[in-house]
What we know:
The protein is of the alpha/beta class.
Amino acid sequence: MTDTTDPLQGYAVDLLVLHGLLITMDASRRILRDGAVAVSGGRIVEIGFSNELKQKYRAESIIDATGRLVMPGLIDGHNHPMAYLLGGMSDDVDVFTAVFKYLYPYEALLTPEQTQVCALGNFAEMLKNGTTCFNDPGGYNVDRIAEAAREIGIRGIINRSTRDVSPRGKSSAPAAALESLDVNLVEAEKVVRQWNGACDGRLRAWFGLRNVLTTSDQLIEAIRDLSIRYDTGVHSHAASVKGENEESVKLYGKRSLRRYLDRGLFSPRLYIAHGGFPDEDELGWIRQHDVKVAHCPAASMKGAWGIIENGMIPRMIKEGVCVSLGTDTNGAAGSLDMFRQLFLVAIAHRESHGDPTLIGPYKALEMATIDGARACLWDSDIGSLQPGKCADIVIVATGGPEWQHAGRDIVRKIVYCATGSSVETVIIDGKIVMRDREILTLDEERLKHDVAEAGQLWMEKAGYSVSAAWPELQRGSHAGSLA
Length: 483
């Protein structure tokens, strides 16, 4: 697939994508055979059939998508870019151990330079798998995460972590992860003022309440007020995992979401990460206030959080709650391939309900595109291929054997059969950031070296080592391993 100069006459545009199987995700969910997209100024000018758009427009560049799928970029609705180097350190442990023993101390040790390398590696893996937008629930050294997003060209939402209390028990956080109420608010507001709308609108900044268990009532109320003042979202882990509500009652006398309701946080701006454990009243409040929920099926299944078995996510979807799809971290999910998440969310909830129709491929794809955009308060600009929206486009090769099943329609092939390795080209804001699987905005080989080096240095500093259940043997000087 190559870019060529367009010899045709007509209205001038920057880019034409021609001859693809076009999945629009518009209100009618139209799929166009031999479809085309015209792009100018980073926005979609028109979609239609190739023979029509070829006659109407002349373009500086053309992408011939013959034999390929053209679809909106995928939206990772919940991802911690800062955690990229932690991948593997918290495998096969319960969630409280993963978060409080590994993740929080890791964040306290990470340098600004390592944070930027983390984020670049994280975003590169996303682009390779067709993800064009992320929503970060909060970290530190946020300027470095934003700079990484600016450099590589991805779209996303960032925010500064806020935590001001550390109750005793299994939810205790290290002292380095805690800050005073004033410091939390100053730093969070600074990030929003500097980065919300930056990079020609490609970056947005929200406020965050990192974890309901490490958040005081005063901080909840102050973040609520800031989100209203700046008209931004609030991203928070709440009602996230089995045992959290019980811990919240023990510590604060109330379940997690009850605390948020009583502090006036419930609104369409509230975005709950994982959110699999509301009770009947809380589910009603979520619906009533149009609260959004991010579901990360791989992370829940890998960590045995209980979200799959308790059945709340399918019920939320059925009752009209806007639920997005996310990876969480490469450590929690094992991969940032959103095609894996599509597959899992489409099928994972079925067995415990004895219902092979739950969620399914069509809703799964909506969760990663238009529903994800709505959850991120960005659906006026992204999530579907429509005139006036940002030109965030993924082109997917369909020549492999997994695409050839005559008995499956294209959406089922995407969700049940495909992986991110089929993604060939990624366009964000009308700019080609990956072409023929080569990221154009940075040196991939250099980045891989930097990620490996930063990870090794961090592990040495933290005193961590890789543990394996099986012996790994070597004879001779040539190891030939991946390490």
